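Annotated sample (chain length 462).
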Amino acid sequence: MPVVAKDSDIPTAQILVVDDEVDHAQVMGEALRRLGHVCTIVHSLADAGEELDHGRFDLIVTDLVMEGEEDGLRVLDRAQQTQPDAETILVTAHGDVPTATAALRGGAYDFIEKPLDLEVFRNLATRAIQAVMLRAQNDALRGRLDEKFGFEGIIGNAPQVRQLIATMRQIAPSTIPVLVTGESGTGKELVAQAIHNNSKRAKMQFVPLNCAGLSESILEDELFGHIRGAFTGADKDRQGRFEFADGGTLFLDEVGDMPLIMQAKLLRVLESGEVVRLGDNESRHVNVRLISATNHDLGELVSQGKFREDLFFRIKGAELKLSPLRERREDIALLADHYARHYAVQGDKEIPQISEQVLQVLTQFDWPGNVRQLMYVIQTMVVVAEGNKLEPRHLPPEVREGKGELADAGLEATTGMSLEQIEKQAIRNALRVYAGNREQAAKSLGIGERTLYRKLKEYGLK
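Output written by the structure step:
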């Protein structure tokens, strides 16, 4: 999403300029750079493909006819596949107008004829970028509106989050069991609660139980309850979680940690719909929807003999896989803003602004604890901040110093990218965060300005 440059109403965007005429490409890039945008300039279809596959852009400006008469259309097609949120402007000679007009029906934002009127060109680019920004704002608004309809806490515009919410909408009204998988801190209980809130059982109980660390005897008592005298200290009858959740939803977190003997007893209840309290002979019928969650690979546990295959297939009616935060870094700023507002209101403080430097650190950090860790970090910053702006000095040391950043798991985000592509993207991100200020960008990257200038020239960045 484009960010608004400081003291300006013009959104700062990442732009890819594609033109085999070097001088013409430089003119277009310079015209856009003067507006504060970060421009990457390439001169061939192949180089454009590389950038589109490994970069992230808000606007693509491409010549329609280059070495091949349809190169511009191929750039448009590639952009639609790899940059679904971006807009594309075609640059065309007068004789190619019919082709450019047809391209509009194929998804291009607009076209402009040569020779360029730079003022018209800049205005057209600005409108395209504003269209991208407006869509992103609307998506964020829809995400916030979801909170009113029970999807609270599930915030984000990343494709993984949109698909997750779409699937949740489909399965929530049913009674199908659900298995939620993902690393610790990704929000598995929030997903389970949201499914319950949007189901026909929403007015009944949502009952959570974390199975991790519970012995067989304690877990059995928690799930099925007991009668008076069942064991020493059992001085009265007690409902288990299954009975308490009757008519509603039972959420078993960390189900992969359940002992094998308890797995067999759980399977029996799921198949019969009846529970027997400890010390009792009488069975009680229960009507419960089960949602399970784990940070383990249950398929692997089955192959190791640590999890029952029949129970695995029983609880895996629909599986929802939650992505770690490092794989959807585009949502970090939105989540940080949400939690900053939440904890400011909770603490009766003025809603703070998050500085660009903080946003850059948050976006680059690897977040081994995922959304839960980000939430605690923002809460701490809001509490300790003395003013109405969150600055780098308010960051916890482990985040400010980047400990845990680019851990092994975080490398997945750059799999398939060359070192050159990773470096190029880092430079683009820094220029974007600092609205094209090269001095600040170089400082944030830990390199000298002369080195940054050389890299900008080497990579065709403006």
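Annotation: Residues 1-9, 404-415 have pLDDT under 50 and may be disordered.
Annotation: The chain has three domains: 1-151, 159-321, 325-408.
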